C-alpha cells in the first residue's frame, strides 16, 4: 500500500509534465505546418554537393 503512495504522485507528475510539454509545443508553433514537412521529403533539392556524390 505504501508503494501506491509513491507511485500515484509520480504518475500524476509525469502526466502533468507531458501535458505541459504538449501545451508548450502548441504555443510555440510546432504544429503549424504539418503538410510542409510531408511534402518536403518528396521534392528533390538542388544541392550541388548531394548531386555530385550521386553522379560518382
In short:
The chain has 56 residues and is mainly alpha-helical. 73% of the residues lie in helices and 0% in strands. It has 3 helices and no strands.
What does this structure look like?
This protein is mainly alpha-helical. It has helices at 2-27, 34-40, 48-55. The longest helix is centred in the first third of the chain and has 26 residues, at 2-27.
Features:
single chain, 56 residues, mainly alpha, 3 helices, elongated
SSE order, one letter for each helix or strand:
HHH
> In total, how many beta strands?
0
Main pleated-sheet profile: none
Distance separating the two termini: 67 Å
| Strand residues, percent | under 5%
Rg over alpha carbons: 22 Å
Structural class: mainly alpha
- Global outline: elongated
Detail the poorly predicted runs.
none
The amount of helix comes to: over 70%
Total helical elements: 3
Mean pLDDT: 85
Outline the secondary-structure elements.
Elements: H1 2-27, H2 34-40, H3 48-55
Amino acid at each position: 500500500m505504501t508503494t501506491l503512495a509513491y507511485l500515484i504522485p509520480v504518475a500524476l507528475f509525469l502526466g502533468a509534465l507531458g501535458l505541459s510539454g504538449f501545451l508548450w509545443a502548441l504555443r510555440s508553433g510546432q504544429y503549424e505546418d504539418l503538410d510542409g514537412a510531408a511534402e518536403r521529403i518528396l521534392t528533390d533539392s538542388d544541392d550541388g554537393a548531394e548531386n555530385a556524390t550521386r553522379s560518382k
